[in-house]
Amino acid sequence: MTAPAAATNAVSPCRLCGAPARHVFNRLILERNDTAYWECTACGSLQTSPPHWLAESYAFRGVHIDVEQAARGVRNWVCLVPYLRAYGVTGERCLDFGSSSGLLARLMRDSGFDFHCYDPYETPRYADYFTVDTLEPNAFSVITAFEVFEHFADPATELARVLSLGADLIVFTTQPYAGQGPDWHYLIPCSGQHVFFYTERALAQVGERFGYRLRKTQAFLVFARTGGAFADAGLHPVEIPAAATSALISKTCWNSPSTNRDAEEVRDRFIARLREARRDG
């Protein structure tokens, strides 16, 4: 059933900070739900009405309209490797939160980083032997979360969950809201999965509550823990020259030591699963 349009003078509590949010426009979600969008009077963030349609939205498996998913994974890999090296990340345990297919984690492992996947909605098929099913505090020094936060229906709780894991560095992307109108491409109402849009001010305020500083780089947004191992992350520009990109791709795609090491581990674990399955008949 289509939800009624909101009155222009209506208010709704912000799902991030709890302050009143004012109605700014409506869009049709999933081609049938007339949905109000609200702008918070305190943190400035934009949000849909409480998203009752998410079960239907996520029932469609696969990337569908997000045809840039693979290219985005490669872009993030090409940029993330020199960024993490510049920040001093070496052998630390890393987590790609909302890893989807696991493509980024696979490429980061090929590049020598100890990356693991977490995604409760999809099997990270490119790194299925390097996944975690539960999140434990202080288990990872670095967390990445690319194009994830805008999917949070309850951002106050779900952002707190990520920030409470104790990572010294959180690298993420989401397109900040700065007053864009109903035609903003990032709303993607036909899919119904983007439901909260943060201002940079809102992100900075949330980070501060958990001891992080928000910083912007050329490619990413960064939460750097104050006093943590990577507290300087994002303070200095990191150059990604074309020659370095070409070298990274060629070195990683042709039998890198990290790839060969993982291949041996995965083969042994797969053989063990085969033998176990045969024993079970």
Overview of this structure, please?
This protein has 281 residues and is α/β, with parallel strands linked by helices. The chain has a domain at 69-175 and 199-225: 3-Layer(aba) Sandwich (Rossmann fold), CATH 3.40.50. It is built from seven helices and eleven strands. The chain has helices at residues 54-58, 69-87, 103-110, 155-163, 200-209, 242-253, 257-279; strands at residues 11-13, 20-29, 33-40, 46-48, 93-97, 114-118, 142-146, 169-173, 196-197, 212-216, 221-225. The strands form two sheets. Strands 6-5-7-8-11-10 form a six-stranded mixed β-sheet. Strands 1-2-3-4-9 form a five-stranded antiparallel β-sheet, with no helix packed on it. A hairpin with a 6-residue loop joins strand 1 and strand 2. The protein is globular, with a radius of gyration of 20 Å. The N and C termini lie far apart (49 Å).
User: How many angstroms separate the termini?
Assistant: 49 Å
Computed over alpha carbons, the radius of gyration is 20 Å
Regions with little confidence, pLDDT below 50 for 5+ residues: 1-5
The fold-level CATH name of the domain at 69-175 and 199-225 is Rossmann fold
Main CATH class of the domain at 69-175 and 199-225: Alpha Beta
Main structural class? alpha/beta
Total of helices? 7
> Helix share of residues?
25-40%
Percentage of β-strand residues: 15-25%
| Side-by-side strand order of the widest sheet | 6-5-7-8-11-10
Query: What's the total count of β strands?
Result: 11
**CATH superfamily placement of the domain at 69-175 and 199-225:** Vaccinia Virus protein VP39
Q: What is the H/E string?
A: EEEEHHEHEEHEEHEEHH
CATH architecture of the domain at 69-175 and 199-225: 3-Layer(aba) Sandwich
Round the mean pLDDT to the nearest integer and report it.
Answer: 89
The major β-sheet equals: 6 strands, mixed
What characteristic shape results from the CA principal axes?
Answer: globular
